[in-house]
């Protein structure tokens, strides 16, 4: 399709663009970590590793996962960082990652990483499902405060619940996954059918339902604890609720992409990511981190949420991810926001 | 019926060899031997339509030739073929003994003035004139002096710094002329150069252009649809119609001896009268017979062509050899009156006649007045009926 | 006498370069337009493994009810918007050209201002106006703004000036003699309107309707932000490609989207051909005051202008509020994009770069291309072909072009693969996306020049490039500046093509609006939309001032021509 002469001309053209490149190693990192935290991590890592520069590609969990799968033949990323463990597990099965044991790996909770040795992926911290409940709007509408997942299917909440689309949002998926794990297939889907009746909108991102609740655009946003705490701290009239039946969660995790030309820099990021310093940073916003014993309570996190975390079977979730999403799309796609 | 120009006596304007004014001669005069510009069987097709059809024409060195014809007759196409802007489909063009048929415009040797002048509005008069010179890598001083010389030639030295939009139409025309002459071309092409001007300016510029052309001895080809312009300016006129040459000749020949009814009708005003040859070689118009020289079998339908000024009028109703007519309409044209004359004997035909206004006043001419019209046999051109080009 | 048989060919060195230029232009348009579109077409008839499977993908598309529904939704929304915009824009244009209402200049300015904003801006403003916490949410009688209502209102806002521009031109070219004749014949105002005004503006109306329809159908910004769970074709494309990385189905939807746009385009061209030019003897129509007509029109225009300003003003206000609707204190915090989820000042800077580079590269390329097409007396078939290619982008929605670019440039076997993810590809895509209007503008400017300049240049044995530099370019300078401005503003506001092509380094302001909105940071999105609007407005104003001054300084002859 492309004769060699065109290649030559192109090469010459590209030489011009490339001339601007500098000596620092540029590490292309795909991530689903909330954007407001990325700058902080980049600055901290680059301060410790002045020769390396992180380039983030950030999007929602589903998008990043789809992107990684689409690029399987010629991966662009050097490192996947801060993506749901369910996704990393599925990718690892495809042989996406370069196994590597970072220095200090032993200090981490063993349950929070790949069981193989050296591990293909390593968990960093857990993010946990929560409800964002706008008390001001609820008062106006005379709506009671929900305390369980089951409450959300009550007719009073019709049109007042927004939740993320599990196909694009990792938060959405961990909700669906947790319901199915807690209650089994039949009961789980029946619950979602009932919930669907009350849903005003399925959003693209996991934090949007909470932001909508914070802005009064909805009363209840199915989201995750970090976002809820953050919005509450900003002054939004919301309460962050951990439903009583138990809450789904997933691990933000990282892995080094196999075949990367910047393996040394990728290893440096891996080493840094399991360090105590990194774990302390994770803890600034998240209550559960991979390194045991350092977690301190996070302001505005719902009380007792850690006890409500379900026993999460990542392997099961990863294995059934595609089937679950297919079923979900078939049932509820109509109310989904674009993307 | 196209004629070859070579059949005519060679024409050499008397003042061709006048040296131009100024220290630098604009063009060295060369004695004419072979024609300067020769068109051989030139044709131009646009798709299936033929714009120029097998045109051959020779132009002598120093000659001023007008191509005259109605719009759409192919004269502009012919000009653009000579420039190389729209190359001919077939045929050959020779300039000064060189075959230029396939040369691009920039490799040919001509200067051109368009109807629109196509002056560059963002350049001053001097810059416009210098445009072609600056390209020659000549020293600035040489360009400047050449520009001054050209502007002097057209009488615009004082306006060198003006922009075209600040000039009158006639002045713009002269700038265009000076620009066209800048590279001392061997051939000057004028594409309807005067038609955008006021009548008065037009008449004045005709003389100026003609004088300049004579002074420089410059071979010039002008395109026009204005017969008066062609007649007053040209050494020879080429009348074109439907892509073909109808006639080539001096203005006098074209006017007085039109070769075809088309030429007769296109140049000047002409009475066309359908007639029939009678037994003694006269032309019979209804019940009237006219003496003229026609050699044809009796009963042959012919078409007579008579200039309105050749219809002689008298108030003497009893005059012999005349046609009794009645004034049906009067048209005041300034120095002359154009009369529309008719009579029962002529049937539906009318005759146009020009009468000096003074004479008309003297006669106290008005509608319905009866006059006697006579036409000299020599003033009548006889064409076959439905002849070519009619 | 030997006649040369066969057509005559002209040759020279100068012509060689001009021909080379034409071939290069063809190659460029081929690579940036035809090949990507070919890649898109071929992907739509292949299976996941790359085997040809005919129209099976389209059959699959039609078998999915959700996707099929979007086609109907798209047509409905675009149809409604077209009706509303054509009618209101006609009234507005009529008032501006055929009446004596006061403040016509201000009305025009207000109506054209949406051109300076991305289509995302009205959608965001609508959230604040009609959302659950919207200031005038009651006006919708409890209907949600998220859905068709929002899409239609938002689309009306940003397509209005496009329709208005066409109708202003259609109505400005009125022959005053016809009106004098109608008045002399004792025709009533209403009858004159029906028999003279409406037929005269017929083609303008049809053209405005078709343009509005195509713009709405292919726009992605408004439905993305305010469409809620109401799927349309444009968001489906996005969902397939970005959300599910399903390029095959994305290509199919893109082609489904391309077809109506293409049809509207062809229809518009055909109608335009029948559009009779005004006779050169026409007298301009000068309206005389008539209160019975002027005051109702003034009221209509005021209403529309207030609506447009209201939407614009709401976006500005929302961007300044600390925490809508609970804390209405004013703050600039929302403009601190680096702390926002999905936005950054880098995006804004990138957009400025993109706009500047697009203006430079686009103007140069488009103008030279138009010049080669118009003024080079060689290879007429090639020039015709290039002209046709230049018209093609008008028929290709930005989203479609964007996907075509991914498929073509991101193909590992493509030697231009390296362009993917750079600012260069964004410039190339934006230039291609807006090529047609630029090309037509440049062609119009060139056709206004005396066609004999080239002949004079040749007779003076001047190379074509010298005539170009010395005469053609200076004469076309105002058109050139307009062209640059057009590219600049559009590169700043466009989102459809580039949303597929940006990389983390080259994220753009308009894309940042989308991302911030996606993340629920609507105030940040509003702030970025306002930044784009203000930048475009400022550059536009500066341009108007500077270009007038520049032309006076550099081109004194223009003053002479006015005298």
Structural class by SSE content of chain B: alpha+beta
Main β-sheet, spatial strand arrangement of chain B: 6-7-8-3-9-10
How much is the radius of gyration of chain B in Å? 25 Å
Number of domains of chain A: 2
CATH superfamily caption of the largest domain in chain A: Periplasmic binding protein-like II
What's the N-to-C terminus distance of chain B? 12 Å
User: For the residues shown, what is the average pLDDT of chain A?
Assistant: 88
* Strand percent estimate of chain B: 25-35%
Please mark out the parts of chain A with pLDDT under 50 across 5 or more consecutive residues, or reply none.
12-22
Number of strands of chain B: 20
Output mean pLDDT of chain B.
86
Rg estimate of chain A, integer Å: 21 Å
Structure notes:
The complex is a heterotrimer of chains A (339), B (390) and C (563). Chain A is of the alpha/beta class. In chain A, helix 4 crosses helix 12. In chain A, strand 1, helix 2 and strand 2 form a beta-alpha-beta unit. Chain A contains twelve helices and eleven strands. The longest helix of chain A has 29 residues, at 170-198. Residues 12-22 of chain A have low confidence and may be disordered. Chain B has two domains: 5-109 and 185-265, P-loop containing nucleotide triphosphate hydrolases (Rossmann fold, 3-Layer(aba) Sandwich); 269-384, OB fold (Dihydrolipoamide Acetyltransferase, E2P) (Beta Barrel), CATH 2.40.50.100. Mean pLDDT of chain B is 86; it is low at 1-32. The longest helix of chain B is centred in the middle third of the chain and has 18 residues, at 199-216. In chain B, strand 7 (187-191), helix 5 and strand 8 form a beta-alpha-beta unit. In chain B, helix 3 (140-153) crosses helix 4 (169-181). With 563 residues, chain C is mostly helical. In chain C, strand 1 (321-323) and strand 2 form a beta hairpin. The longest helix of chain C is centred in the N-terminal third of the chain and has 34 residues, at 65-98. Chain C is globular and about 70 Å long. Chain C starts with 12 loop residues before the first helix and ends with a helix. Chains A and C meet through helix 1, helix 2, strand 2, helix 3 and strand 7 of A and helix 10 of C. Chain C: It is a multi-pass membrane protein.
């Amino acid at each position: 399709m492309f004769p060699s002469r065109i290649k030559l001309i192109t090469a010459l053209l590209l030489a011009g663009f490339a001339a601007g490149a500098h000596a620092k190693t540029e590490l292309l990192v795909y991530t689903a970590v909330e954007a407001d935290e990325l700058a902080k991590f980049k600055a901290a890592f680059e301060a410790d590793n002045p020769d390396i520069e992180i380039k983030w590609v950030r999007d929602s969990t589903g998008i990043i996962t789809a992107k990684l799968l689409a690029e399987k033949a010629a991966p662009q990323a050097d490192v996947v960082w801060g993506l749901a463990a369910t996704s990393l597990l599925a990718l690892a099965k495809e042989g996406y990652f370069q196994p590597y044991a970072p220095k200090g790996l032993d200090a981490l909770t063993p349950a929070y990483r790949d069981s193989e040795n050296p591990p293909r992926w390593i968990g960093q911290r857990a993010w946990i499902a929560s409800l964002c409940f706008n008390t001001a709007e609820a008062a106006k509408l005379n709506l009671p405060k929900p305390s369980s997942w089951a409450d959300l299917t009550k007719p009073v909440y019709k049109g007042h619940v927004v939740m993320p689309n599990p196909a694009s949002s990792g938060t959405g998926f961990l909700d669906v996954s947790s319901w199915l794990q807690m209650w089994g297939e039949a009961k789980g889907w029946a619950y979602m059918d009932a919930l669907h009746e009350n849903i005003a909108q399925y959003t693209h991102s996991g934090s949007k339902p909470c932001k909508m609740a914070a802005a009064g655009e909805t009363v209840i946003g199915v989201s995750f604890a970090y976002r809820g705490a953050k919005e509450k701290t900003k002054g939004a009239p919301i309460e962050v609720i951990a439903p009583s039946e138990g809450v789904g969660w997933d691990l933000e995790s990282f892995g080094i992409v196999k075949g990367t030309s910047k393996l040394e820099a990728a290893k440096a990021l891996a080493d840094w990511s399991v360090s105590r310093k990194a774990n302390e940073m994770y803890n600034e916003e998240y209550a559960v981190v991979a390194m045991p014993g350092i977690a301190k309570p996070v302001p505005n996190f719902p009380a007792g949420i850690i006890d409500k975390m379900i026993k999460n079977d990542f392997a099961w979730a990863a294995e059934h991810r595609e089937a679950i999403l297919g079923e979900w799309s078939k049932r509820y796609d109509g109310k989904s926001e674009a993307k | 019926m196209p004629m070859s120009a070579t059949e005519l006596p060679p024409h050499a304007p008397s003042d061709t060899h006048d040296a131009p004014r100024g220290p630098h001669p604009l063009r060295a005069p060369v004695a004419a031997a072979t024609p300067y510009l020769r068109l051989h069987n030139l044709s131009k097709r646009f798709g299936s339509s033929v714009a120029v059809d097998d045109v051959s024409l020779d132009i002598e060195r120093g000659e001023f030739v007008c191509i005259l014809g109605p719009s759409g007759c192919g004269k502009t196409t012919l000009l653009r073929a000579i420039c190389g802007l729209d190359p001919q489909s077939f045929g050959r063009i020779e300039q000064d003994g060189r075959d230029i048929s396939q040369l691009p415009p920039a490799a040919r040797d001509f200067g051109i003035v368009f109807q629109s002048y196509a002056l560059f509005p963002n350049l001053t008069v001097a810059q416009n004139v210098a445009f072609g010179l600056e390209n020659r890598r000549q020293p600035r001083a040489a360009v400047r002096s050449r520009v001054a010389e050209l502007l002097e030639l057209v009488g615009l030295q004082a306006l060198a710094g003006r922009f075209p939009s600040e000039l009158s139409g006639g002045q713009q025309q002269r700038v265009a002329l000076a620009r066209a002459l800048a590279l001392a071309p061997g051939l000057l092409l004028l594409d309807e150069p005067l038609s955008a001007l006021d009548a008065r300016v037009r008449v004045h510029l005709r003389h100026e252009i003609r004088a300049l052309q004579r002074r420089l001895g410059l071979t010039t080809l002008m395109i026009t649809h204005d017969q008066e312009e062609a007649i007053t300016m040209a050494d020879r006129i080429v009348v074109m119609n439907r892509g073909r040459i109808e006639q080539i000749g001096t203005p006098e020949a074209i006017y007085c001896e039109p070769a075809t009814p088309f030429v007769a009708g296109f140049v000047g005003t002409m009475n066309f009268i359908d007639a029939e040859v009678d037994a003694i070689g006269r032309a019979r118009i209804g019940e009237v017979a006219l003496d003229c020289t026609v050699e044809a079998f009796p009963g042959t339908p012919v078409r007579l062509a008579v200039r309105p000024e050749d219809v002689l009028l008298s108030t003497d109703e009893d005059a012999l050899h005349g046609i009794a007519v009645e004034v049906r309409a009067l048209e005041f044209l300034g120095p002359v009156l154009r009369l529309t004359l008719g009579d029962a004997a002529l049937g539906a035909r009318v005759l146009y006649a020009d009468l000096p206004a003074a004479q008309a006043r003297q006669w106290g001419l008005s509608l319905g007045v009866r006059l006697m019209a006579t036409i000299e046999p020599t003033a009548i051109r006889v064409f076959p009926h439905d002849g070519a080009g009619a | 006498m030997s006649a040369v048989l066969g057509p005559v060919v002209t040759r020279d060195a100068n012509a060689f370069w001009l021909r080379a230029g034409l071939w290069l232009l063809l190659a460029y348009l081929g690579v940036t337009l035809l090949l990507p579109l070919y890649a898109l077409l071929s992907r739509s008839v292949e299976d996941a493994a790359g085997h040809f499977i005919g129209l099976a993908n389209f059959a699959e598309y039609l078998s999915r009810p959700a996707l099929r529904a979007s086609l109907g939704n798209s047509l409905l929304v675009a149809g409604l918007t077209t009706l509303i915009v054509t009618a209101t824009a006609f009234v507005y244009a009529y008032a501006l050209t055929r009446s004596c209402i006061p403040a016509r200049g201000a009305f025009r300015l207000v109506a054209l201002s949406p051109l300076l904003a991305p289509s995302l801006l009205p959608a965001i403003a609508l959230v604040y106006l009609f959302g659950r916490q919207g200031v005038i949410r009651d006006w919708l009688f409890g209907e949600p703004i998220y859905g068709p209502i929002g899409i239609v209102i938002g689309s009306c806002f940003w397509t209005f000036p496009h329709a208005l521009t066409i109708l202003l031109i259609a109505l400005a070219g009125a022959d005053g003699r016809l009106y004098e004749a109608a008045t002399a014949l004792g025709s009533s105002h209403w009858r004159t309107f029906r028999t003279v005004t409406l037929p005269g503006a017929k083609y303008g109306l049809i053209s405005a309707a078709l343009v509005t329809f195509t713009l709405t159908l292919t726009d992605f910004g408004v439905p993305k932000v305010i469409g809620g769970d109401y799927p349309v074709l444009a968001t489906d494309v996005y969902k397939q490609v970005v959300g599910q990385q399903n390029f095959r189905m994305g290509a199919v939807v893109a082609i489904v989207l391309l077809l109506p746009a293409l049809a509207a385009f062809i229809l518009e061209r055909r109608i335009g051909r029948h559009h009779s030019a005004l006779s050169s003897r026409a007298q301009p129509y000068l309206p005389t005051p008539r209160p019975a007509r002027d005051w109702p029109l003034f009221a209509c225009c005021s209403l529309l202008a207030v609506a447009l300003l209201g939407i614009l003003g709401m976006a500005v206000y929302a961007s300044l509020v600390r925490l809508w609707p609970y804390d209405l204190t004013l703050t600039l915090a929302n403009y601190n994009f680096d702390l926002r989820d999905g936005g950054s000042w880098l995006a804004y800077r990138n957009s400025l770069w993109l706009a500047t580079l697009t203006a430079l590269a686009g103007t140069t390329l488009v103008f030279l291309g138009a010049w080669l097409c118009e003024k080079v007396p060689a290879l007429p078939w090639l020039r015709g072909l290039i002209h046709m290619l230049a018209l093609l982008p008008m028929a290709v929605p930005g989203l479609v072009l964007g996907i075509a670019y991914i498929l073509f440039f991101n193909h590992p076997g493509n030697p231009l693969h390296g362009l993917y993810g750079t600012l260069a590809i964004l410039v190339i895509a934006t230039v291609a996306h807006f090529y047609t209007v630029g090309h037509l503008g440049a062609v119009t400017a060139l056709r206004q020049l005396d066609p004999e300049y080239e002949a004079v240049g040749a007779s003076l044995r001047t190379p074509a490039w010298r005539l170009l530099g010395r005469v053609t370019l200076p004469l076309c300078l105002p058109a050139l500046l307009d062209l640059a401005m057009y590219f600049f503003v559009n590169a700043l506001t466009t989102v459809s093509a580039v949303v597929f092509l940006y990389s983390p380094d080259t994220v753009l302001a308009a894309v940042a609006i989308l991302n911030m909105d996606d993340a629920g940071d609507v105030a940040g999105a509003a702030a970025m939309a306002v930044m784009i609007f203000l930048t475009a407005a400022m550059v536009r104003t500066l341009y108007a001032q500077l270009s007038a001054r520049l032309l006076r300084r550099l081109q004194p002859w223009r003053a002479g021509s006015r005298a």
